Amino acid sequence: MKWNIVADSSCDLMSKDISCDEVGFSTIPFVLNIGGKEFIDDENLNISNMIEEMENCPTACGSACPSPQQWAEHFEKAQNSIAITISGNLSGSLSSAAIGKEMALEKYPEKNIMVLNSYSTGPETALCIYKLAEWIKNGDDFSTVQAKAENFLKDTHTCFALSSFDNLVKNGRMSKLTGFVARKLGMWGIGIATEEGTIAMKGKSRGPEKAINIIIQDMKERGFSGEQVAISHCFNKDMVERLSSRILELWPGAEIMTLTTRGLDSFYAERGGLIVAYK
Fold this sequence. Notes:
- This protein has 279 residues and is an alpha/beta fold.
- It has two domains: 3-30 and 65-154, Dihydroxyacetone kinase, domain 1 (Rossmann fold), CATH 3.40.50; 157-278, Hypothetical Protein Tm841, Chain: A,domain 3 (2-Layer Sandwich), CATH 3.30.1180.10.
- Helices cover 39% and strands 26% of the residues.
- It contains ten helices and 13 strands.
- The protein has helices at residues 47-56, 68-75, 93-107, 123-137, 142-154, 166-170, 176-184, 208-221, 237-250, 263-269, and strands at 3-8, 23-28, 31-34, 37-40, 62-64, 80-85, 112-117, 157-162, 187-193, 199-206, 228-233, 255-260, 274-278.
- Helix 2 packs across helix 3 (93-107) and helix 4 runs antiparallel to helix 5.
């Protein structure tokens, strides 16, 4: 294999989603710990069962990123390897991939390996992966692909909307009373991924329609020009359809891709949550 794209499971894509002769694509799973049970975020994970376990678990839950050895094994499969991870400020996956790169190069110094920090998660990573495959298919060389990817990620933005705050409460980041009141009032929390790859709160709303308004306003403020949008959702097709309709009303030429959250993004977005990326 000449080219190989590898992502951690925060990308919300499956291996079958990228299929062309020029490039292989695979994902490496996070491991989610819920009530003492381990859920491997591979392509066979039953998200519905995992969410139910999480909702019924009274204690804090956690996640573990892929190991350097897992990354190294994937890097050894091709002459040119591209890794893309969840934001380095949200997880140790980026550091793990960087160590895996050094491990692979010790054995195969002639290989080309790049490790990309998405500064985000889910749909933004997915958009970049599709572009990587496109650039490779068009014949771009390794250094050109790397430069294009880094620029693409700088010009792509992410926002998210959460209707459940259980994990925040369980992990001590929100009081039980505040979480209870937010749920009873139908409150939504809307946040953005910053340029540094951290999470900042954008606002809060009562009800999904006002949450959509805040997302649309964020897209306008950050200069969305009507190109590409990717929306990951955790069991909330209705809100995806409503948001998509609003986007197309304002930007009729926008290309919208819909994804379902895999294990890690379901773990943090929780039931009903949306993650929106746009270029």
